[in-house]
Amino acid sequence: MSQQWSWRPSVLAGFVFAVTACSSPSDVPGADGQSGTPSSNGKNAAVRLIPEAPGARCPQGGTALQTGLDDNGDGALSDDEVEQTSYVCNGSGTQSGGMSLVKLMPEAAGARCASGGTAILSGVDTNADGLQGDSEVTHTQYLCNGEGEKKGNAYLMKMASEAAGPNCPQGGTAVLGGLDMNVNGQLEGNEVTTTQYVCTGSTGAGGTEALVKLDAAPAGANCGQGGRAVKSGFDANGDGTLGATEVTNTTFVCNGLTDYPNRGEALVRLDTEPAGANCAYGGTAVKTGFDSDGDGTLGDLEVTTTQFVCSAANFFPTKWASNPRGSYNSGEITSLWVPVSRRIWIYKTSDTSRIKLTVSDIFRVGAGYNGGRGAYSVRMNGSGMGCDAWQYNANTSGWNQDHHLPFANVCLTEQLPKGLYEFEVLSYANGGTSSVGAGTSSALLLAEELDGTKPYAFSKAGGSVGTASTSYVKMSGREVTFLKQSASTLLKVTLADTLRTGYNQNYGWGTVMVRLDGVNTNCYTGKHDGQGTGGDLHNPFVMTCILPNVSAARHTLDVALSANSGGAANLGWERSNPLLLVEELPNTGLTYSNMSFGSGELSGAWAGVGARQIIHNVTAPGKSVKVTYSDTFRAAVNCNGRWGFFQLYVDYQPTGCASGQHVWNSGNAAQDHHHPANLTCIIPNLTPGPHTFSIWSTTQHSWDGTFCGSNYFGWNRGQNLLMAEDLP
Staple 69 to which of 43, 151, 533, 637, CB 3.0 to 4.6 Å? Predict the structure, then answer.
């Protein structure tokens, strides 16, 4: 941002700061202040602010103000140069009057300071308004300019990240202050006279963003002839506005006479400060100076003073967050909602963005039961957010069942206010027991902030609908109209829904298709269930596709369903809502393969799956890469109660990001289930350069190490998508 304000010229800007009980250690280096009180030798006067521990002088602690002459000219007030010490004590620690304030104000040339100087006013903030009124000033000191000197005529403030330690147990921000000794507009180490700490609390990361605003200062104690109040503080409630209760520091720029009548009008400018040496996590540069050329704008050459208001470290992830990789087997879930150890926090940075949630897991329902069902629910801040999906298994023979199947879901929040959000997975069983995560060590819950920099559109419309037609039938809702910005970009299409095919048939099958402008695409997936008897299986699924070479124009995408075997097919059974999401992605920073290629029969130990390999170039150190694999998968054909697995390998080494399928029924029938599968992996800290990402498979049963049947990938599937993207 770059904004302009103006005021009448003034000799010196006053500054107010709060002195709290968590002030700097006693070894903070001193810094001299205004130039010396008029004397024959012209030595500079110096000031040092030292924390005062609770004791006889200050029962609640406070600050010792030490002043004297810099006899040895080393730019600091040493112990043997201190001539006067006074104490500014904290109050009772209550909301009213619990904080002491110190204010530096310009002192005009006169009886107190022949050449002018600075008045140091201090006292307790009895009305807790953060400002020092006339009635609250209990002590005044004067630092006077020496003859012919103009040094140290600005008080500067800077904020720096404070690591977790004795000053802030969970980290925070150090607020540094001091006089600008060398008049270079920067607060340097030997100029720091006071340090305060703004510590992160135990309940969240609210307030890590520093904000600045300018208010009018009426004529009064703070500015005799009025002026401007430059207020700063942390955005504690995350609403993007600096409220009255969030102001922690106020600088007063006062109107008045000036010794420099030809400099023009004084101006102030607020510039965004990127993360770097001045502000580790970015912030605002407050720049002041005189409008020498009279154009009403503060140019770079007119800036005489720069102060930095710095944001603190964000202790929760922004842009994206995921749960740590590990084993998350929930154990047996009964008819109670229970959390299943998948929880993340993300700090949302914009009021207009949305959070996209991606789930990659394994889910079993109805163990030892026929007609069992269970729910997989993602909650936001402890409440439902429209991200519930139910799974159901039944057969016409009444056989008990035990189906562990790859599970995926994608959900999108509304436009929520920026701030900290928690997401957690809960599960529930109705008929038999459910289980989450058995057979995988890489269950993923991923949150990503969609902020509009990559255009997107979506639909959550459409309930439970179906067809028995063997031709494609458009499903209600499930339609998106999207204006593509560029012909060179890619369209990433995500469909999250629940699919049943071949109702009460053995070997029944069907296909769900995403169409572009009414035309079939290669973005489709099939589902097929053979289990020796008629079946009724509703399975949540995600299909991800890349559509290249789509023109820059307005396009419509919709979803159609075909019951290929004539048995009734259904979409959307007992879920919060389907999601059809289209995102426009630049054709850079990602690598993908979207061929249509069946794998053939694969059995035995871990081995690569044909045509499912890409080489992706990691652009910078420390990057995390998101890998999406979307296909159809059948495990251990003609076996009953056996596992088949697939896994992401990087540079031909296993990553542990795997999924699997295990299907059993009490009729001991051969199993043949082709289901959609969508595996999402986060691979952290890859070295820069090219890396090979590939999909591998095995039919080895994890319980006893034996092998049975064969796996198959890509049956009735338009795209075997494998895609790698660098995360922010």
Answer: 43
